[in-house]
Amino acid sequence: MSRKLQAEIERVFKKVAEGIEGFEDCYDKVLNASNAGQKEKYESDLKKEIKKLQRLRDQIKTWIQSNDIKDKQDLLHHRKLIEKQMEKFKAIEKEMKTKAYSKEGLLQSTKLDPKEKEKLDLCQWLVESVDLLTTQIDALEATAETIEGLMGKKRRDPTKVARLAQLSERVERHKFHIHCLERIQRLLENESMSTEQVLRIQEDVNYYVEENDNDEFVEDEFIYDELPLDDDDP
User: Fold this and answer.
1) Residue 233 has pLDDT above 50, yes or no
2) 28: number of CA atoms within 13 Å, CB side?
3) Pairing with 134, which of 93, 178, 180, 233 sits 20 to 30 Å away (CA)?
């Protein structure tokens, strides 16, 4: 490994340490916020910090896959440090997303209109579906990294190459569904989409989320075709 590359890696490691310190500071502020406005600000700051760490993780993953670097223990260690923070963020993000639609909150609201309850239930379902797909993406990417680590420099094993292509395609399909589901949630919250429209796709989405790893699974590529999901919509 060249001195220039070694120096670049060390700079990234330093940024990782600084990024983790910044994330931990924001994380503590979120937990100890004294009011809703303050907590919302700290949650926004926390999201910025985790994005910085994720960019560093992407660079580290590139180096891990490089044949120019023989000893990858420090790289793997720093990747795990970042992923630990990502897990903490994922947990608090789920709490942030589901808070507005919690079942407990619904039970406390004795005058909730049936249509509004249906809307909140669907928003909760959309959040949970996105969370499940995100978890599946993490597992698929971890599997891909393991396969890449087993492949030689020439990467000529056709079985492993085909498997990597399959995993990559599944990750991209998951990301597509996540994008659509998050768009649907925003439209539903803004009353730009009806609960009836969402209910019509619920069974098909559940089938994709729950069965996409099944050998007999066949994806319906037209689930969202009847919905107004253009990016220009509110």
Assistant:
1) no
2) 5
3) 233
Could you read off the pLDDT of 97-108 as tens digits, one per residue?
666 555 555 555
| pTM of model > 0.90 | no
Distance CA 100, CA 36 (A): 13
Per DSSP, helices labelled H in the chain are 3-31, 36-64, 73-99, 103-108, 114-150, 158-189, 195-211
Q: How far apart, in whole angstroms, are the C-alpha atoms of residue 147 and residue 150?
A: 5
CA distance 98 to 113: 20
8 Å CB contact between 67 and 153: yes
CB atoms within 10 A of CB 233: 13
pLDDT tens for residues 29-76?
A: 988 888 877 888 888 899 899 999 999 998 998 888 887 888 888 999
Helix (H, G, I), strand (E, B) or coil at 228: coil
CB 94 within 8 A of CB 174: no
Residue type, 43: E
- Phi first, then psi: what are they for 110, rounded to 5°? -75, -20
Q: Which two tokens stand for residue 214?
A: 């099944």
Q: Answer for the pair 92, 46: CB distance below 8 angstroms, yes or no.
A: yes
